[in-house]
Write a structure and sequence with these properties.
Aspartate Aminotransferase, domain 1, 2 domains, 13 strands, 15% strand, binds 4'-deoxy-4'-aminopyridoxal-5'-phosphate, binds glutamine, transferase, pyridoxal phosphate, Kynurenine-oxoglutarate_AT, pyridoxal phosphate binding
Length: 383
């Protein structure tokens, strides 16, 4: 048997969650909240079930949900996507990314990805028969390096995959950076695949730079997001894609034979709940509070903090710890931290194709305050 993905094994998220469970560690590894979504959203699911919304919805998604998504994007970013032709509900962002790539990228094409990057990107590109061209974000600051991106463009470049707010580094692109990307792509026909799953987790008064705010990018762009992050329901696996009609027509050709459609009751519940803007408008303050308390607690350890402008991830450097610990490769450090300190983390090396070690680890702060406090106590005691 010849594997389609010979280099792929079990994801680091699954591995670290299993190790955390085995050692009774506080799991700050895999990104998911340890608290539930809004009770009104849970009630809306029960209402949808009772109302008999239990058969196939339309292929592109429940119309009321597509309308709510379009209305939200228009209100926040000023671009009017047509819910009939330009919005599709997906089984989370992971399916949306794979489907977009299978629909729009041809065998032999190149797709630029910016490292460190989310682990599903390259396998999705490989399954399309294309090649991922890796361009590093600037070392230490993790900002887009436009000279390096420009140098990576070839006649085969079909798309660039961007992610802001950025997993794992928490970087948030600025308006000027989006404009620079638009200027760089203007003379080309390169598509933009924009992973915006952390769109509502942006701190210190910054504005999420959706491609929907930038017409030159939106016109060649596929906007991808996920309700799992925004509403604390990562297990629901419901997300969406917004794109101009011509791109969306191709997306839907693949989507209808990939999942055909996404579960009906959750879509009705999300449509009803989304009419209230407060839950997502309050999200930055909610997570910024957690970020600030977590960072203040980490300041009492030997870990050095990297900036966190967005997402629910805080990256740390362990270069300042005792020499025998600081010398560990990132995977070994995260295993040691899980086993010996009782706190699970994710090595940043897992987000690089060459697995490079920079003495960085990612900690997820989408946790109840008492969970974060328990983790901080352990970290302060040992580090
Ligand atoms: N992209 C990024 C950057 C993510 O962090 C995640 C979730 N870990 C996803 C995509 C996948 O989202 P979903 O769970 O909706 O498939
Ligand atoms: N996106 C989550 C993270 O970065 C993990 C999702 C998964 O387990 N695949 O932690």
């Amino acid at each position: 048997l010849t594997s389609r993905l010979p280099a792929v094994g079990t994801t680091i998220f699954t591995t670290m969650s299993a190790l955390a469970q085995q050692h009774g560690a506080v799991n700050l590894g895999q990104g998911f909240p340890d608290f539930d979504g809004d009770p009104r959203l849970m009630q809306a699911v029960k209402d949808a079930l009772d109302a008999g919304h239990n058969q196939y919805p339309p292929m592109a998604g429940v119309p009321a949900l597509r309308e709510a998504i379009a209305a939200k994007i228009a209100a926040l970013h000023g671009r009017a996507y047509d819910p009939g032709l330009e919005i599709t509900v997906t089984a989370g962002a992971t399916q949306a990314i794979l489907t977009a790539i299978l629909a729009l990228v041809h065998p032999g094409d190149e797709v630029i990805v910016l490292d460190p990057c989310y682990d599903s990107y390259e396998p999705s590109i490989l399954l399309a028969g294309a090649r991922a061209v890796h361009v590093a974000l600037t070392p230490g600051r993790f900002r887009p390096d436009f000279a390096a991106i420009a140098a990576a463009i070839t006649p085969r470049t079909r798309a660039i995959l961007i992610n802001t707010p950025h997993n794992p580094t928490g970087t948030v692109w600025t308006e000027a950076e989006m404009q620079q990307l638009a200027a760089l792509l203007a003379p080309t026909d390169i598509l933009v695949l924009a992973d915006e799953v952390y769109e509502h987790m942006v701190y210190d008064g910054a504005t999420h730079q959706s491609i929907a705010r930038h017409p030159a990018l939106a016109e060649r762009g596929v906007l991808i997001s996920s309700f799992g992050k925004t509403y604390h329901v990562t297990g629901w696996k419901v997300g969406f894609v917004a794109a101009p009609a011509a791109l969306m027509a191709e997306f839907r050709k693949v989507h209808q034979f990939n999942v055909f459609t996404v579960n009906t009751p959750m879509q009705h519940a999300l449509a009803a709940f989304m009419t209230d803007a407060a839950p997502y408008l309050e999200l930055p303050a909610f997570y910024q509070g957690k970020r600030d308390r977590f960072r203040a607690g980490l300041a009492g350890t030997g870990l050095a903090l990297l900036p966190c402008e967005g997402t629910y991830f805080q990256c740390v450097s362990y270069a300042g710890l005792a020499p025998e610990i600081a010398a560990l490769p990132e995977v070994a450090f995260c295993e040691w931290l899980t086993r010996e300190v009782g706190v699970a983390a994710i090595p940043l090396s897992a987000f690089y194709p060459d697995g490079r070690d920079q003495q960085f680890a990612r900690l997820c702060f989408a946790k109840r305050d008492e969970t974060l406090e328990r983790a901080l106590e352990r970290l302060r005691q040992h580090l």
